[in-house]
Design a protein that fits this description.
The chain starts with a strand and ends with a strand. The protein has helices spanning 7-19, 35-47, 75-84, 95-99, 118-121, 125-140, 152-164, 194-199, 202-216, 220-234, and strands spanning 2-4, 24-29, 50-55, 89-91, 144-148, 170-174, 237-244, 258-266, 269-277. The chain has 281 residues and is α/β, with parallel strands linked by helices. α6 packs across α7 and α9 runs antiparallel to α10. It contains ten helices and nine strands.
């Protein structure tokens, strides 16, 4: 496994694969890897000849009061984990390598589907994601790119601009990886205290309880209110509990497939999760 820190170095490492027309898979990450990230690499290995994993904490997707400076940088540990699951190349560029020394005058903004949910709570976040992911796609030029469905809205945004901008690759969403108690794996889980970690699975419990209620005929509005109450009682500060269609459009009743979304803070740690629920007439 190679580690490249420059665009030129990565390009040179990928030249033999391109010349041999090998299938290149790409997993973009911000590092501090967990089993969810490793599952993305495992999925990539199933259909790709060469798998590239980027490790880059992207400054332009963090808000002014968010955790960019404190976000864990664990490259050595990440490298060992990636070697174990068969990653071929790590791309770990500096901020200067990704953005240069001159002001960035170009932005990429996806409208509509970024107007609410995390887009409302974190203004500018998805623009930052769209810019860095587009840059990474241009640098790596993969055939397939793999993203976790925990960041459902992010995945929708990436699929949208890939389609809109005719970026020649296929985006593959990989199901959420959960701990045994149901908590969606996230690098930010490491911020939780021991006590908070025991409370955190309430998010997933509220989602699965909501699924049961919907199938019993409880109204969607009541189900969402029940979720908010359950989370608040458990000690969360709820950012949002929302229902959307799989295409992120508003939905008033459970008369088609629905995705339930939660974002809530436990102490200073913001956790997100979602659950896709099939409608059966």
């Amino acid at each position: 496994m190679k580690t490249e820190t420059t665009i030129q170095g990565l390009s040179a490492s990928l030249t033999p694969a391109r010349s041999a027309r090998k299938i290149i898979g790409f997993v973009p990450t911000m590092g501090n890897l967990h089993e969810g990230h490793l599952n993305l690499v495992r999925e990539a290995k199933k259909i790709c000849d060469v798998v590239v994993v980027s490790i880059f904490v992207n400054p332009i997707q963090f808000g002014p009061n968010e955790d960019f400076d404190s976000y864990p940088r664990t490259l050595e540990q990440d490298s060992h984990l990636l070697a174990d699951v068969g990653c071929d190349i790590i791309f770990a560029p500096s901020v200067e390598q990704m953005y240069g020394n001159k002001p960035r005058l170009t932005n990429i903004s996806v409208s509509d589907i970024t107007n609410d949910l995390c887009g409302l709570q974190r203004p500018g976040h998805f623009d930052g994601v769209a810019v860095v992911v587009t840059k990474l796609f241009n640098i790596v030029q993969p055939n397939f790119a793999f993203f976790g469905q925990k960041d459902y809205q992010q995945l929708a945004v990436i699929r949208q601009f890939v389609r809109d901008l005719n970026i020649p690759l296929e985006v593959i969403g990989v199901p959420i990886t959960r701990a045994e108690d149901g908590l969606a794996l996230s690098s930010r889980n490491g911020y939780l205290s021991a006590e908070q970690r025991t409370i955190a699975p309430t998010i997933y419990q509220s989602l699965t309880a909501a699924e049961q209620e919907l199938h019993r005929g409880v109204s969607l509005a009541e189900v969402l209110e029940n979720m908010k109450q359950k989370l608040t009682q458990a000690g969360f500060i709820v950012d949002y509990v929302e229902a959307r269609t799989p295409e992120l459009q508003n939905i008033e009743a459970f008369d088609q497939d629905v995705v339930l979304f939660v974002a809530a803070k436990l102490g200073n740690t913001r956790l997100i999760d979602n659950l896709q629920i099939k409608f059966t007439a």
